[in-house]
Amino acid sequence: MARLFFSTGIDELRARIIRLVSTGLHVSGALAILRWCAKSMMPAQDQRQRATFPFIKVRRASNLQILTYHRVNDEQDSLFPATPIRVFEEQMVHVAKCYHVCALEEAVEMFEKNDLPPNALAITFDDGYRDNYLHAFPVVRNLSLPMTIFLATDAIGTGRTLWHDRVFSAFRETNAPDLTGFDHSVERVRLDSLSQRILTMEKVLAILRQLDEAERNHRISVLCRCLAVEERRVDHNLMLSWDDVRLMSRDHVSFGSHTASHPILARVSAEETEAQLVRSGEAIRQHLGRQPMTFAYPNGTKADFNNVTKETLKRLGFTCAVTTEFGINEPGADMLELKRGRPWEEHLPTFAFKLSWYRLMSSQAA
Question: What pLDDT digit, counting tens, does each position of 57-70 carry?
Answer without folding.
Answer: 677 789 999 999 99
